[in-house]
C-alpha cells in the first residue's frame, strides 16, 4: 500500500500534464526545494514556479508516467517515463527522489 507521501508525488506526476502552475505549486511547501536534473535547485515557491515553467511553457505537452514507486523512510522514489514536446513521441526514462520533512 502506498504511503501518503507516495500518493502526493504520484498525484503531482499526474498533474504535470495539465501544465497549471498554480495547481502544481500546491504540492510544495513555502520552503521547498525542487531540483530537476540538469538545473540548479529552485528554493521557495517563486523559484519553483520558474523552474517548472521552464519546461511546461516550452513544450506542447508534458507527461510523467510513473512505472514504479516506493517509500523509504521519508523519501519517495519513482521510476518514470517523461515525455516533453510535440507529437514526435520522444520519451526519456527518469528516476526521481522526493524527500519529505515535517
Task: Give an overview of the whole structure.
With 102 residues, this protein is of the alpha+beta class. It has a single domain (4-99), classed as Nuclear Transport Factor 2, Chain: A (Roll), CATH 3.10.450. 28% of the residues lie in helices and 35% in strands. The chain has helices at residues 4-15, 21-25, 45-56; strands at 33-34, 42-43, 61-72, 75-85, 91-99. The chain has a three-stranded antiparallel sheet with strand order 3-4-5, covered by helices on one side. Strands 1-2 form a two-stranded antiparallel sheet. Strand 3 (61-72) and strand 4 (75-85) form a beta hairpin. The protein is globular, with a radius of gyration of 13 Å. The two termini are 21 Å apart.
CATH architectural category: Roll
Helix content: 25-40%
Q: Structural class of the helix and strand makeup?
A: alpha+beta
Name of the level-1 CATH class: Alpha Beta
For the termini, the CA-CA separation is 21 Å
Helix run count: 3
List low-pLDDT spans. Answer: none
**What is the third-level CATH name, the topology?**
Nuclear Transport Factor 2, Chain: A
Q: Give average pLDDT, whole number.
A: 85
**What value does the Rg take, in angstroms?**
13 Å
Query: What does the oligomeric state look like here?
Result: single chain
Provide the fold topology.
Layout: H1 4-15, H2 21-25, E1 33-34, E2 42-43, H3 45-56, E3 61-72, E4 75-85, E5 91-99
Antiparallel strand pairs: 1-2, 3-4, 4-5
Amino acid at each position: 500500500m502506498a504511503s501518503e507521501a507516495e500518493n502526493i508525488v504520484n498525484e503531482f506526476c499526474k498533474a504535470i500534464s495539465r501544465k497549471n502552475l498554480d495547481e502544481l505549486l500546491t504540492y510544495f511547501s513555502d520552503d521547498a526545494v525542487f531540483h530537476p536534473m540538469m538545473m540548479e535547485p529552485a528554493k521557495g515557491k517563486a523559484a519553483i514556479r520558474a523552474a517548472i515553467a521552464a519546461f511546461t511553457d516550452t513544450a506542447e505537452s508534458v507527461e510523467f508516467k510513473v512505472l514504479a514507486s516506493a517509500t523509504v523512510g521519508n523519501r519517495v522514489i519513482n521510476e518514470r517515463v517523461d515525455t516533453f514536446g510535440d507529437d514526435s513521441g520522444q520519451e526519456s526514462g527518469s528516476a526521481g527522489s522526493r524527500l519529505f520533512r515535517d
